[in-house]
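User: Let's play a game. I give you a shape written as tokens, and you guess the letters that built it. Ready? Here's round one.
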């Protein structure tokens, strides 16, 4: 199928399949390279409260990155699906001792504990998962819209937590089909490059 005729669902399927074929050794090397890339990012120096996600489905592995952030004395937060605000995320502090549960998608998340919640506007950086991205910085997510809603305040006012996409190089496509609510990310980091649209 020619890329121009592909729907978002087509792209999602194709890129997820591509990503799942990456070997463990490739994933390991990519996670080390991503830390090297991020160590040069000025945003990381100036950020203390950093949201990230636990990788799944062939995503770029974030486990070594989380360990590295802890070593840098950063406070790390993970997304938790909001128990009653549909489609919203909460961010809870994550440490090596955090009690974890599985959410409805089978992804591990911190057990809901009000004392561990940090309001999203108080985060400095939100590492944002994505299925695919294009030459304009548009992000293709899993389709649930969780991060679109979470990042809306930043897109509207450029204040609060700054989003930073993480991806394998194979998740790049020249041009994604774009919806009216799609807003490009300011930066996406791959193991071999820092893409910036700022």
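Assistant: Ready! My guess for every position:
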């Amino acid at each position: 199928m020619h890329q121009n005729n592909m729907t978002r669902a087509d792209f999602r399927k194709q890129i997820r399949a591509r990503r799942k074929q990456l070997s463990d050794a490739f994933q390991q090397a990519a996670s080390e390279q991503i830390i090297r890339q991020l160590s040069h990012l000025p945003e990381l120096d100036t950020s203390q409260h950093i949201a990230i996600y636990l990788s799944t489905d062939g995503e770029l592995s974030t486990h070594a990155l989380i360990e590295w952030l802890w070593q840098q004395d950063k406070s790390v937060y993970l997304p938790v699906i909001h128990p009653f605000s549909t489609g919203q995320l909460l961010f809870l502090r994550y440490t090596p001792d955090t009690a974890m549960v599985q959410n409805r998608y089978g992804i591990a998340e911190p057990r809901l504990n009000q004392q561990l919640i940090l309001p999203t506007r108080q985060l400095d950086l939100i590492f944002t998962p994505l299925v695919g991205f294009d030459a304009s910085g548009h992000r293709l997510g899993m389709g649930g819209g969780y991060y679109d809603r979470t990042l809306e305040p930043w897109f509207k006012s450029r204040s609060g937590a700054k989003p930073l996409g993480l991806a394998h190089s194979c998740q790049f496509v020249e041009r994604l089909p774009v919806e009216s609510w799609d807003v490009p990310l300011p930066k996406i980091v791959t193991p071999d490059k820092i893409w910036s649209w700022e």
